Amino acid sequence: MAEELPGSVLFACSFNAVRSVMAAAIMRHYHGTKVYVESCGLRAGDLDGFAVAVMEEIGLDISTYKSKTFDELEDGFFDLIITLSPEAQHRAVEMTRTMACDVEFWNTFDATIVEGSREVRLEAYRQVRDQIKKRILERFPVGPAPKV
């Protein structure tokens, strides 16, 4: 049985340049009218061009996204924080010690460490994008809730 959608979700990663940005865009695409979605990182990084390219392949434009850190979030309260890197997991757990907020760790590969040709690197980013999309759709299914 699918869980009810949270009112707000934060996707967090190390640099807020690839994984968390992709996750937020995908979540907004499927549930943006029902859920407030934000992303951040431990450190602000420059938006990754490979991430922009593979998101464009599925019709999502993240090219104007401005990276932000935990400290730069306008809203400090979320119903759910989904972390995509071990570093972000530690920060989220510390941050939520004093608030009623669930934290989930989705260990997600860091495509930025892949070396090789442009196509080899793009394929690594596609795999990360598709893994995140699959996790989001499993955790937050689209469509009518199943009858119980």
TrEMBL record:
One of its GO terms (biological process) is response to arsenic-containing substance. The keyword Metal-binding does not apply. SUPFAM superfamilies: Phosphotyrosine protein phosphatases I (SSF52788). Residues 7-142 form the Phosphotyrosine protein phosphatase I domain. The keyword Lyase does not apply. Keywords: Arsenical resistance. Gene3D superfamilies: 3.40.50.2300. PANTHER family: ARSENATE REDUCTASE (PTHR43428). This is ArsC family transcriptional regulator. It comes from Thalassospira xianhensis MCCC 1A02616.
